[in-house]
Amino acid sequence: MIMLVNKLQKCDTNYQIIPSYTYNSNNLKTLIQMTDDKYKKAMIEYDNIDPTIACHWGSNAFGYIFVEKK
Q1: Are strands 62-65 and 47-48 parallel, antiparallel or unpaired?
Q2: Direct distance between the N- and C-terminal alpha carbons of the chain, in angstroms, rounded to an integer
Q3: How many Å apart are CA 53 and CA 42, to the nearest integer?
Q4: Given this model, what pLDDT does residue 37 score?
Q5: Residue 15 to residue 54: CA distance in whole angstroms
Q6: Are 34 and 65 contacting, i.e. CB atoms less than 8 angstroms apart?
Q7: Which of 3, 19, 34, 56 has the fewest CB atoms within 10 Å distance of its CB?
């Protein structure tokens, strides 16, 4: 999870961050607790992406969708 939190350093907070999960949001909730508050301000509501991404990510996957800074 630390690796995912560190990836946000490349995040452009001028755009929203989408916390995403498949099937179960418990891992995502733990990840968000570990996340710096400056990134939490850019986050929108959790997105259950089961219908579109679960077939690729698998069940219980979680992470952030964001725009990377240049």
Answers
A1: unpaired
A2: 24
A3: 22
A4: 94
A5: 24
A6: no
A7: 3
How far is the C-alpha of 29 from the C-alpha of 33, rounded, in Å? 6
Distance CA 29, CA 34 (A): 9
Compute the distance between CA of residue 24 and CA of residue 53 in angstroms, rounded to an integer.
14
Q: Two tokens at 52?
A: 């579109």
Tell me the pLDDT tens digit for each residue of 26-68.
999 999 999 999 999 999 988 887 777 767 777 788 999 999 9
How many alpha carbons lie under 13 Å from residue 14 in its C-beta half-sphere? 4
Closest Cα partner for 43 from 70, 68, 59, 20?
20
Structure-block tokens of residue 2: 């630390």
Q: Name the residue ranges covered by the structural domains of the chain.
A: 2-22+31-65
What's the pLDDT score for residue 56? 78
